[in-house]
Amino acid sequence: MDKLFIHLIGEERIQCLQVDEQGSAAGQPVSAPLQEMAGLAQGKQVVVLVPAERLVLTRVAVPTSSRQRQLQAVPYLLEDLLAEDVEQLHFALGSYRKGEVAVAVSAHEQMRRWLQRLAEAGIRAKSMLPDVLALPLEEGTWSVALADERALVRTGRETGFCCDTGNLSLLLGHALQQVGEAGPASLRLFDCRKHPGEAVERLFPEGVEYRSEACERGILPLLAEGVHKGGSGPLNLLQGSYSQRERLSKLWRPWRPVAALGLLLVVVQMAKAGVEYQRLKDEKELLAQQVEQTFRQGFPDIKRIVNPKLQAERRLESMRGAGGGAGFLTLLAEAGPVLKQVSGIQLRGLDYKGGKLVVGMQLKNLQQLDELEKKLKEKPELSVEVLSASSRDKHVEARIRIGAAA
Prior knowledge:
Elements: E1 3-8, E2 14-19, E3 30-31, H1 38-41, E4 45-50, E5 56-61, H2 67-77, E6 89-97, E7 100-107, H3 108-120, E8 127-130, E9 141-147, E10 150-154, E11 160-164, H4 168-179, E12 186-191, E13 210-213, H5 219-228, H6 244-252, H7 256-298, H8 308-320, H9 328-341, E14 346-353, E15 356-363, H10 366-377, E16 382-392, E17 395-404
Parallel strand pairs: 1-4, 4-8, 9-12, 12-13
Antiparallel strand pairs: 1-2, 2-3, 5-7, 6-7, 9-10, 10-11, 14-15, 15-17, 16-17
């Protein structure tokens, strides 16, 4: 993935450089306001380099390899060496080797100021590294970069310091004296100043040997090259409360109650929908039972019910007939009210053939049958014929044929 390197040299001085996946710079470094770099950051991994003079880089002996315990112990192991209260400081941990852990210390106020500037420009950093730890590094050497009035000295994978060029000779001599025989075999000098080579000898302690290497395009391409070759180590300042996960968590935290309430509403709605679904299902089953019961009453001769609606339509269609005649519905409309007037009649079946309606029924006695026949014959539009009548178990079963009057 392409990278965008942003070097926050100072509060006002900012440089950026685009680098492709192979580590090749796309053009020259650009000096511009941070807001103008937001467009360049789109679709790229943003690496922010911060000035090492705003940090304390050191190593501290810690009797544990547990990262969590190191985070708890390091602030208090360094407390006596720091001017500020440890509560006001951010501690970023690097690698743990030979009982020591690399540490970068920065003020919380400084970290918030850097991140706020990036956020206001709409830029989200993937990593934030001390610029001195981005210098190219070789085994057994120290790297020194001169950038106008700043001098960066990288003494190890996660160690180094920054100073003004006027004090480089003093501080470099002191650092070499401290390491003694364990010091570097040589120094690599990258003179990235506008006027390279000017008074270089006076910037180094007397007797210190060094070899100069080209730095024609400025210090930022040099730092980008160092990061690409993996020499920057794991000391990323965006740890703990400044990690990307933690920053997203801070943005999410105020919305948690709202999300919980929303989830609760969804659960309530789902429960309500479930209850309503069950109610409608029970109602549907009840209606199906009622339809079947009504169908059996209307068509008692049909024993197997598959689709009551379709079966009823087909039976009614067959009852209507295919020729002349009064029609099933007309005869039923004329005879129905009369059948209803005689109490105690129970219908046993309906049949429609040849334009005539045959009604099977159960009556209390023969007098009821005579009464029904009389009432039906009072309707001049109907012809009535009793087909059969028989007494059984204290009731009478009869069949009457009803047709249209001639």
